[in-house]
Amino acid sequence: DTAVSQTPKYLVTQMGNDKSIKCEQNLGHDTMYWYKQDSKKFLKIMFSYNNKELIINETVPNRFSPKSPDKAHLNLHINSLELGDSAVYFCASSPGLRREQYFGPGTRLTVT
Amino acid sequence: GENVEQHPSTLSVQEGDSAVIKCTYSDSASNYFPWYKQELGKRPQLIIDIRSNVGEKKDQRIAVTLNKTAKHFSLHITETQPEDSAVYFCAASNNDMRFGAGTRLTVKP
Q1: Best label site of A86, A88, B40, B102, fewest CB within 10 Å?
Q2: Average pLDDT value for residue range A88-112
Q3: Which of B6, B27, B37, B43 to probe the A interface (max A CBs under 10 A)?
Q4: Of B87, B94, B95, B91, which Cα lies nearest the Cα of B42?
Q5: What is the spatial distance between Cα B5 and Cα A92, in angstroms, rounded to a whole number?
């Protein structure tokens, strides 16, 4: 009965590869997010989807592309991975904008 | 866009003492201010939140105060315990959520 789940939990890959991280929420929320947490623990929003529509697209490289097949899923696809992409990526969901967010367990991405 | 500043970056207290973390925000349209606790290797979890129509909110040992005029809000933890040790994040939200840089709280037994 996990509320927000992400797969995989750990991802180790080489520079130049393409990878995806999956996120699912079973809370019936309308809004989902992707955050990047770097080694200094700073939480930076990357994308936000509300009712399957992108409403925030922060200044992230276009190598990152979110895909939302339905309200319960928001996947993150990353092309041509770089060393600087190494971080923990958190998915989150909320009942709507300006509401409490529930985070997934995180995916630790290591690019070698 | 919104900019949230959080202080201090690290805080060490003795068990039983109080801890205070302060944040300021820039967007006067922000009206939702949550606080998250992140333990080592875990996900951020909401511990308390406040909306702009409220000046103070309390939940057991945790309280949050908001000064809309000055655009700052604070987290107060009383009677701290070792299990309160974690990184705490403030955030401010208009249509998007912006997080502070975090405060690493250490409670020494």
Answers
A1: B40
A2: 94
A3: B43
A4: B87
A5: 22
Comparing CA positions, the residue from B25, B5, B46 lying closest to residue A95 is B46
**B82 SS3 class:** helix
Shortest CA gap B107–chain A (Å): 19
CA distance A106 to B3: 24
Q: Average pLDDT of B28-51?
A: 95
What are the tokens at B6? 């959080």
Kindly report the nearest CA distance between residue B3 and chain A, in angstroms.
12
In the prediction, which pLDDT does A1 show? 59
State residue B97 phi and psi, 5-degree precision.
Answer: -95, 125
Residue identified by tokens 């276009």 is A62
Interface of B with A (CB under 8 A): 31-32, 34, 38, 42-46, 49, 87, 89, 93-99, 101-102, 104
pLDDT greater than 80 at residue B15? yes
CB B27 within 8 A of CB B90: no
* Residue A67 predicted with pLDDT over 80: yes
User: For the segment A29-56, what is each residue's pLDDT rounded down to a tens digit?
Assistant: 999 999 999 988 889 999 998 877 887 7
